[in-house]
Automatic annotation (TrEMBL):
It comes from Brevibacterium ravenspurgense. This is Transcriptional repressor NrdR. A zinc finger (unnamed) spans 3-34. The gene is nrdR. Keywords: ATP-binding, DNA-binding, Metal-binding, Nucleotide-binding, Repressor, Transcription, Transcription regulation, Zinc, Zinc-finger. It comes from the Bacteria. Negatively regulates transcription of bacterial ribonucleotide reductase nrd genes and operons by binding to NrdR-boxes. Residues 46-136 form the ATP-cone domain. NCBIfam families: transcriptional regulator NrdR. Binds 1 zinc ion. One of its GO terms (molecular function) is zinc ion binding. Its cofactor is Zn(2+).
Length: 157
């Protein structure tokens, strides 16, 4: 890290603190040459590898945008989409990898979307799970019904 005042390449860390809910670290540094202090922010990066091979930074807004299309015409609020995107990012970061395939991001979205709205889940799943026939949709719908019936049976007891 170069000193922003004298451009010296050597500095020492005076203080470190977590910032932004632990997603980054704020470091207070002091230049060994001029003695002036400055602050740096360090954050972990999460990259998404697209189908084309291009790598780009993970973006919650892109998750929200993709899910918003599946939720079109459904009773889903913007806050719900923001929470879903946060859940997805946390799940991906918990894997401990710096790069993830775009398809894996899509598959990670499925579980929280299933809880949020089942119709939107089916729309989204049809793309990311590669539904090719009506039978694929029927299997997904049967799975949703079985899950719903299982929850209803639990409530009776």
């Amino acid at each position: 890290m170069h000193c922003p005042f004298c451009r010296n390449a050597d500095s020492r860390v005076v203080d470190s603190r977590t910032a932004e809910d632990g997603a980054s670290i704020r470091r207070r540094r002091q230049c060994t040459a001029c003695g002036r202090r400055f602050t740096t922010m360090e954050a972990t990066s999460l990259s998404v590898i697209k189908r084309s091979g291009v790598t780009e930074e993970f973006s919650r807004s892109k998750v929200i945008s993709g899910v918003r299309k599946a939720c079109q015409g459904r009773p889903v609020e913007e806050d719900d989409l923001a929470k879903l995107a946060q859940t997805v990012e946390e799940a991906i970061r918990a894997r401990g990898v710096a790069e993830i395939d775009a398809d894996e991001v899509g598959l990670t979205i499925l579980s929280p979307l299933r809880e949020l709205d089942q119709v939107a889940y089916l729309r989204f799943a049809s793309v990311y799970q590669g539904f090719e026939s009506l039978e694929d949709f029927e299997e997904a719908i049967e799975s949703l019904r079985a899950e719903r019936d299982g929850r209803a049976a639990e409530k009776e007891f």
